[in-house]
Amino acid sequence: MKYAGNKVVLIGTGAVGVAYAYALVNQGICEELVLIDINEKKARADVRDLNHCEAWAPSAVTVTFGDYSDCSTAAMVVICAGIAQKPGQSRLDLIQTNMGIFKDIVGKVMNSGFDGIFLVATNPVDILTYATWRYSGLPAAQVMGSGTTLDTARFRFNLAQYFGVATTNVHANIIGEHGDSELPVWSGAVVAGRSMHRLLEVNPEIKVALDEIFIQTRDEAYGIIEAKGSTSYGIGMALARITRAVLRNQKITLPISALLQGQYGHRGLYIGVPASVGRQGVGDIIELDLETEEQEMFDQSVATLKEAQAPFWPDIAPA
Fold first, then answer.
1. pTM for this structure?
2. 266 part of the active site
3. Domains and CATH numbers, the chain
4. Distance of alpha carbon 298 from alpha carbon 124, whole angstroms
């Protein structure tokens, strides 16, 4: 990797992109933020609006409108461009259109001489992160997706509401596809210092409520999209958290979309798993001690993703 600065280039300034940009400025995460979008008029207005945050931000972030040449000196390129999920659509329904968009975008980024970290948010995020890796030719460590960071945030919030504790006191992960085949890792969940196994041992009747909490978490996006057209704030904050981990070399474990190379018994696909995130990108992938049922659900999630992306990458063997 060439560049050690804190310059971020954001491609795509729709609802998700702007929410992410605002989170970066509001938290003072980077020093320079460049926006790229085909709707130049709207993106330039976003630049002006974001610059008006500087007086109250924790530190100055220089926000400008740019083009793909700006990627040459970027530490990170974050892709939020593409066709958004519509009411009634699954994330996998977006593959065909967004794959073509990504081939064009990633090609232009790499032609600039970019050698930093790609972070992908566009859905279906696992498949498009894999596409970014293949199209870019970069090492897998330099390409990651938002994975199940948003799903995990929703899960933690919903569990915190149920148990009446702070969200920060809930440690639990959603892994697998960022989509309908995702799964909760109940075996590793901890609420206010107590394991989920212990909580169920003491109060077995809560299992029904916990199952409902997972379903609510998994399907949360559908209700939000139906009501307001898109999800944006939650994923914007998730992307900002990943960006902070990279730029500040925090090496924190986050459930991102990372390339499996034998972990969990699989290889050759990007999928949401806990991994260390720092200045060099994706570090160690953390293999959770999944119970038999959890492993079976994870295997099914892998199969779902491989089947969906196989038409685009014939060298991917079915799960």
1. 0.95
2. no
3. 7-145 (3.40.50.720)
4. 17
